[in-house]
Amino acid sequence: MPRLIAAFVALLLALSASPAAASALPDGGGVLKDERFTELGPIVEAAGAAGLRTFDGIAVVEERIDRTGEVLDTYRIRIDVAARTVADANQIIAEQVAGVDELRNEYTAVIDGLDERDRERLESEADARSGTSAMIRKVASSDWVCPVDGEMEFRDSWGEPRSNGRKHDGVDIVAQSRTPLLAPEAGMVTFRWDMIGGRSFDLVTADGDYYFGTHLRSYGTEGDVEAGEVIGYVGRTGNAVGSHLHFEYHPGGKGNSVNPFFLIDTHCR
């Protein structure tokens, strides 16, 4: 727009400054011409062109402004949708949390209403289900190491009666004396001795699982060990009949023993 104004100002100045060279009507008549208009022709044309360019520029700017407005509207729509999505998600989570709290309260009320014997039975069944789940994970793991490194024989002797009314809480793996015993998983190994088991090892893993082995001839590495590290050797100490390893697995910690036969049968053949 400033260019258009400047052009018209130049036009007015030219009109006022141009000499009056008007020609009379030529003989024989004709059209009256003023040379000033002839001289100002280029200026008028330039002013017109400048005006057109200015209007074109304004149109381009207006178009860009319109496009920018459309883009901003699109972003505003997206932000609104995102905000609604987050709000809906928060509402769903809140409802689920409330549902969990309600179920927990109902479960607590049911447990509190049971007598001691029924409560113990339910807890025992829950531990058994948890142990079965842990056993499945260990059986499927390619990192689990067979605890006996050599030729061996074993069978499912879980639950068989033992002296003094005890039941067998593990599996006996028969192997030659001095056969290396390996840590089935990484963890902390400690050693101990008693009259029944003789030399024994306890292994506690990082996730709290507990392994127990007994009747060892001698000990291996104690403390922090990696899976597959030698932690002892097969023997017949304690009340053992013949050289073998009595092996137990307690998922989640000592006192929750489960039948380890499936572990041995999967990883030791």
How much of the sequence lies in strands comes to 15-25%
Main beta-sheet strand count, sense and barrel state: 9 strands, antiparallel
Order of helices and strands: HHHEEEEEEEEEH
Unreliable runs, pLDDT <50, ≥5 residues? Answer: 18-26, 28-33
Specify the CATH class of the largest domain.
Mainly Beta
Q: Ends: how far apart? A: 93 Å
Based on the structure given, which CATH architecture of the largest domain is correct?
Answer: Distorted Sandwich
Overview features:
269 residues; alpha+beta; Glucose Permease (Domain IIA); 4 helices; 9 strands
Describe the protein's architecture and organization:
This protein folds into 2 domains: 1-22 and 33-113; 153-267, Glucose Permease (Domain IIA). Helix 1 (2-17) packs antiparallel against helix 2 (35-112). It is elongated, with a radius of gyration of 48 Å. The protein is α+β, with helices and mostly antiparallel strands and 269 residues long. The protein is built from 4 helices and 9 strands, in the order H-H-H-E-E-E-E-E-E-E-E-E-H. Strands 1, 2, 3, 4, 5, 6, 7, 8 and 9 form a 9-stranded antiparallel sheet that branches. The protein has helices at 2-17, 35-112, 116-140, 261-267, and strands spanning 153-154, 171-174, 180-182, 187-194, 198-205, 210-219, 223-225, 230-234, 244-250. It comes from marine metagenome.
